[in-house]
Amino acid sequence: MHRYRTHTCGALRPDHAGQDARISGWVHRKRDHGHLLFVDLRDQHGVTQCVADSSSAVFKILDAARPETVLCITGKVVPRSAETVNDKLPTGRIELVAKDAEVLSEAAVLPMQVAGEQEYSEEMRLTYRFLDLRREKMQQNLLLRSAVIASIRRRMWEAGFVEFQTPILTASSPEGARDFLVPSRIHPGKFYALPQAPQQFKQLLMTSGFDRYFQIAPCFRDEDSRADRSPGEFYQLDFEMAFVTQDDVFNTITPVLAGVFEEFGKGRPVTKAPFPRITYADAMLKYGSDKPDLRNPLLVSDVTKAFEGSDFNLFAKNIQKGAVVRAVPAPKSAEQPRSWFDKLNDWARENGAGGLGYVIFGEGMAAKGPIASKLSPERLKMIAETVGVGPGDSVFFACDQEEVAAKFSGLVRTKICDELGLLDKEKFMFCWIVDFPMFERNKDTGQIEFSHNPFSMPQGGMEALTTQDPLTIKAFQYDIVCNGVELSSGAIRNHRPDIMYKAFEIAGYTQADVEARFGGMLNAFKFGAPPHGGSAPGIDRIVMLLADEPNIREVICFPMNQQAMDLMMDAPAELPPEKLRELHIGLRLPPPRKD
RNA sequence: GGGGGCGUAGUUCAGUUGGUUAGAACGUCGCCCUGUCACGGCGAAGGUCGCGGGUUCGAGUCCCGUCGCUCCCGCCA
Question: Which residue of A101, A222, A426, A452 pairs with A58 in a disulfide if CB–CB is 3.0 to 4.6 A?
Answer without folding.
Answer: A101
